[in-house]
Design goal:
This protein is about 50% helix and about 5% strand. It is mainly alpha-helical. It has a 3-stranded mixed β-sheet. The longest helix has 21 residues.
């Protein structure tokens, strides 16, 4: 058998192995691994293919898939913080690509029906990212005030939001969009509730505004997210020049809008309600109170429903065992819990003890 080299590389990156690591685990030489990944050399024997698959923790069939590896999405070029290290990029790329393939295979058995469109907005047509955000609120018929459940809103537009474990990689989320698949947002499970909402709105900006990466795209997505979650014309009357410089002003606003105090302070700065020195003073106050990293009045994290429903469809409606689900996804059945845990798995019923 000659495996698809792309799938060998993908599986190796997903397992965070080097070519030398894989060679040692599979009992072959590193040059042999290099030739396999280059798609050259002799076909693998049944024994070699089995050893390679076992070392990578994927079924043999996975390596015969006619698939490609793609970049891991919106955060793969420009980021707001430091650039990811090569190993971190490979790790996220492996995770995103494996989950993308799983979604694609699941959608062969079930349809995802959107109840609202996901329009496209050109910044050059609307004049600003904030105007694009306001246009989307209008297109989706959103009332004034906070968006009560942003995750549900995005899922209603056919966006598959996947909560996953980035394993400590300093990135909150990324998104991908291909013609033959619904848009997908991958968000780290450690993201707290207020940042979860802002992060989803940030990724939504990429989906509706950006076709090609460019240096200002992350700032544009931040501006879009801020305006989409907290429209300027609605919050501006609440932020006078007198009260916007007081930290206490932002507590009730956080509870109402369900966003972080830090975001509201940036909003006040962008609206000209405070200047840069006042913003710095507010941040200093938050540091002194120990609330900059862990803010008071935590926002409950929203739950995803669409992606878990795909897993549940197989386990509950179709009655798939782990072995059958693994075969459908081309993933080792004994490793399903790595990605999906007990989603859709029937919980054991408690045993009743009769006391006389």
């Amino acid at each position: 058998m000659k495996p698809n080299p792309e799938m060998v590389i993908l599986a190796r990156e997903f397992r965070e192995l080097t070519q030398a690591d894989l060679a040692a685990k599979a009992g072959i030489t590193q040059p042999r691994v290099a030739r396999i990944e280059a798609g050259i050399g002799a076909d693998l024997s049944v024994e070699e293919m089995s050893a390679l698959a076992h070392a990578l923790g994927f079924p043999v069939g996975f390596f015969g898939l006619v698939e490609q590896r793609f970049s891991y999405g919106s955060s793969s070029v420009f980021t707001r913080s430091r650039q990811l290290k090569a190993g971190e990029r490979r790790k996220i790329s492996g995770l995103v690509n494996v989950l993308r393939i799983h979604v694609k295979r699941m959608l062969d058995h079930v349809d995802v029906q959107a109840v609202r469109p996901l329009p496209r907005f050109g910044i050059e047509d609307y004049g600003s990212t904030r105007a694009c955000a306001r246009a989307l609120r209008v297109a989706w018929n959103l009332p004034n005030g906070p968006i009560r459940n942003l995750t549900k809103l995005l899922e209603g537009a056919g966006v598959v939001v996947i909560e996953c474990d980035f394993g400590g990689v300093p990135m909150d989320a990324t998104c991908i969009q291909f013609a033959d698949l619904p848009p997908m947002i991958f968000i780290d499970k450690s993201v707290p509730g207020d940042r979860w909402r802002f992060t989803l709105a940030h990724e939504l900006a990429h989906l509706v505004m950006h076709d090609l990466p460019h240096p200002s795209m992350e700032d544009e997505a931040d501006d879009f997210a801020s305006e989409f979650l907290v429209p300027s014309d609605e919050i501006s009357p609440e932020l006078s020049r007198a009260n916007a410089s007081k930290l206490a002003t932002y507590m009730p606003l956080k509870e109402y809008w369900q966003v972080s105090i830090a975001m509201l302070i940036r909003k006040a700065l962008s609206l000209g309600k405070i200047d840069e020195n006042q913003r710095k003073w507010l941040v200093i106050q938050m540091n002194k109170l120990g609330i900059r990293k862990v803010e008071p009045l935590p926002v409950p994290k929203e739950s995803t429903a669409l992606f878990p429903s795909l897993i549940k469809h197989f386990r509950e409606q179709l009655g798939f065992t782990d072995e059958e689900l693994g075969a459908a996804l081309m993933y080792s059945s004994d490793r399903l819990d790595e990605l999906y845990g007990d989603i859709g798995r029937e919980k054991p019923k408690p045993l009743l003890r009769i006391v006389r």
